[in-house]
Design a protein that fits this description.
With 282 residues, this protein is α/β, with parallel strands linked by helices. It folds into two domains: 6-127 and 202-231 and 262-281, Spore Coat Polysaccharide Biosynthesis Protein SpsA, Chain A (Alpha-Beta Complex), CATH 3.90.550; 135-195, no CATH class. Helix content is 36%, strand content 14%. Helix 10 (210-227) packs across helix 12 (244-260). The radius of gyration is 19 Å and the shape is globular. The two termini are 31 Å apart.
Length: 282
Amino acid sequence: MKSKNLTTYCITKGENDSLIKELNLKIIVGGAINKKFDFPDNWILDNSGHNISYKNQNFGTLTSLYWIWKNELDKYNDESWIAISHYRRFWLKENHEGIISPDNLNSNILREIPDKYLNFDAFVAKPQNLTGYKFSKLFRKAKKNIINKPSILFNKKNHNIKLHFDMFHLYCGLEKAASVMDNSQKNDFLNYINNETELFSPFSIFILKKDKFKKLCESTFKWIDDCENIFDTEKLFGYGQIRIFDFLAERYFSFWIKENTNYKNWPFVFIDPRINNNSIIR
């Protein structure tokens, strides 16, 4: 029998506490090995159990995902659903209110998978359209790309996942990472990053059936483990590069889910009362 039971993990850096601690989610603190705060007793610290918390500087949310994979999956039956959210991004129920604030967030959070969608095995954030960069941003962040392919300036079809990664993270980083993939997957991944402009679901948030979650983690961490051997983290600078493995995985999650699941886009809200109480529903 198909199950609509859903367990949502909310990954946090230990911030936004006043908001997330009231949401009845499983809170997991990433990089807890380096945190000196006193967290609530029911929060999960990613430096307990089988963990890689010490890698958090370069892994970001991956240390929390690894912890869930290694320490939690046996608690769930095969029909269970596992959702990953972040301390500023939360999955919404289907018939959510039009305006979300800290006051009504809890009543609008997704708590179970609706019956009519149980034939899917994955839910992802609405894809991000990567086309339409202004000339000024391209000249500032994509000089090497323009030299190699001047049509980037005029043809939006060239505003692909590779270009986005080159601009905001590491030039040719995705191709370098793809070099350690199995040949059976490498060509499909390269085709995805070089041609896709509209099917990138960002932020490393998703909802998966248990078996899909397990397979995604197995595939992702095998690849990332190989990537660690070819990237010298001592030569990476700034937020966009230092967390290189987190950002590589963000692209891989989107690729893998679209290749291996029957998925559906699902709404989430971005909300951070430390900035203001306005929210963005996507």
